[in-house]
What we know:
Two copies of one chain form a homodimer.
Chain A: H1 9-17, H2 33-47, H3 54-61, H4 75-86, H5 100-117, H6 133-145, H7 153-183, H8 188-199, H9 206-214, H10 224-243
Helix pairs in contact in A: 1-4, 2-3, 2-4, 5-7, 7-10
Chain A binds a DNA duplex through loops.
Amino acid sequence: MTEYSSGDPHRTLELLWGEPARPSRGPRPALTLAAVARAAIEIADADGLGALSMRAVAERLGFTTMSIYRYVPGKAELLDVMVDTVNAESPVLEHVEGGWRAKMEVCAREEWELFHRHPWVLHLAWHRPVLGPNSVTSYESALTALSGIGLSDMEIVAVFNTLYGYVRGAARTSVDAKLAERHTGLSEDEWWAGRERFWQHLERFPTMSRMRGSGAFDVVEMDFEFGLERVLDGLEALISKRSLGAEPENGAR
Amino acid sequence: MTEYSSGDPHRTLELLWGEPARPSRGPRPALTLAAVARAAIEIADADGLGALSMRAVAERLGFTTMSIYRYVPGKAELLDVMVDTVNAESPVLEHVEGGWRAKMEVCAREEWELFHRHPWVLHLAWHRPVLGPNSVTSYESALTALSGIGLSDMEIVAVFNTLYGYVRGAARTSVDAKLAERHTGLSEDEWWAGRERFWQHLERFPTMSRMRGSGAFDVVEMDFEFGLERVLDGLEALISKRSLGAEPENGAR
DNA sequence: CCACCTCCGTGTATGTCGTACACAGTTCAG
DNA sequence: CTGAACTGTGTACGACATACACGGAGGTGG
C-alpha cells in the first residue's frame, strides 16, 4: 500500500531536524526514533509496504502497538523518517573522479541500486527530495556536480530532474517486475499460461508478432545502462552547446 | 494505497479478452463489468486510490458491497480492468504526420496527459503493459512507430522503455506534487512554514543556498517538455547512427 | 406446465488496519 | 515528598477486503 500524502510537514521536519533532547521528567524511553525507523525499514525491505503495520513494527521491537506512537505522530511521519534514513546511503559525488557526466553516472547507478535495496521508497509519493538532512545532502551533492559547466540554475534543476525522472521510472519498472516475480513464486509457467490466452489474439498485432519471433520480449528486465547512456547523450548535447557560450533561449524557462 | 501485485493473471486475462457471454439460466445481471469499472474509475479519478473501496464502488452503483464480486473476482483484478479501460484513451500513432520523433513526441505528451487525468494509474504496479486489448493496441502502435528506421527489435524495445521510463517518472513527480497540493488544501503557508524550519540549516548547503537566491526552486513543476527534448535528442543520436548503417555493437545486448 | 438448477443480490461474520483515549507506573523538579 | 510530566499498556472504534450461506429469480428439461 502507498500513502501518496506525506505526513504533517511541521511534525516531520521537527523529527528530522530537531535535537533528540530527552525531557527531564518521566521514565527514560526504552526506544529511540532511530530504532523505530530501523525496525520499520527492515520490515519494508523484507516484505514490502503491505507488511509494514504499526503492529508489526511494535512486535519486532517487543513492545505494544501504541508504544510506537510515543516516538512518531503517525504512520505517515514514520514513512518520511524512513525515507530520509535510507537516503543516508545516497552517494556523495564530490570525490568522484571525472567531469559532470562521470559524476551523474555514479549518481544514477547508486540510486538505482538504492531503489533495489529499498523498493518501497518508490512506492511512496515522489515529491521533490524530502526535506530531511540526508536527502538534502544528496540533492546538494548532485546539484553541485552540475554547477559551473555553463548551465543556468534553472537548467541545472531541469537537467537533474530529467535524469532523475528516468532513473526513478526505470527503477520502478524493474523493481515491480522483481516483486511480482517473488510474490507469485516461480510463476514462470502461470505467467506463460496467461500469455497463451493472450497470444491467440496476437495476429491483430503484427509488430508484436514479429518481436515475439525475434525474441525481443524475452529480455525480462529493461536495460538500465542503455537508457542511461541515451539520456546522458541528450543532456550532453545541451551542455556542450552551453559550454561553447550559447545563451539559454527558453530551454528551461 | 497501492497494491504492487496485480490480480491473478488467468482471471484477469479472462475478464479482459473473454467474450461477455451471459449464461442462459438465472436472473439477468443488473450490472456489467464495464459499468463496475467505470464507476471505480470515476471514484479513483476524483478522490484517488485511497477512496476506492469495494463499498464505495457498490454504493455509487446503488448496490451492496458483495454484489460487485459477481462481476470481478477481487479488487486486484478490478484494478487491472480499470487500467486497461483507461488505456483506451492512449494515442494511436499511425495517423500522426512526420517521422519517428514526431510520433514519439505525440505519444509522450498524450501519455503525460492521460496520467494527469488518471493519476492513480501511476500508483499501481509498473509492469510491462498489462496484457489487455487497449494496452496492447497502444503498445503495438508505439513499437510500430519505431520500426523500419534501422533499429534492431531489441533496440526498439529498449528505446521505447527509455522514453517511457522518463515519461512515467516525470509524470509521477508532477502528479504527486499536484495531489499533495490538493490534499493539504491551500497549504502554501504551511508548506512555507515547514521550509522556514529547514532554511535555517541551509548554510551547510552552498549550492542550494545560491539556487534559493536565484529563484530556481520557485518553479514548482518540472519542465516536462525540456526533459522530453533532451531524451529524444539522446535517442536520435543513436538512431541517426543506425540509419547510416552502423551495426549495433552491444548497445542493447 | 412444472420442477429444478443456475445464477443473482444480500446479510452476516472474520480478521486486519490506524489510531483515539483513559489509565497505571516511573522519574525528577519544586 | 508531593505532584507534574512522561512512559508503556489495554481497550475500543470505524473502515477495509472478502468468505460463506441464504432467498429469490428465471430459463430449461421433463
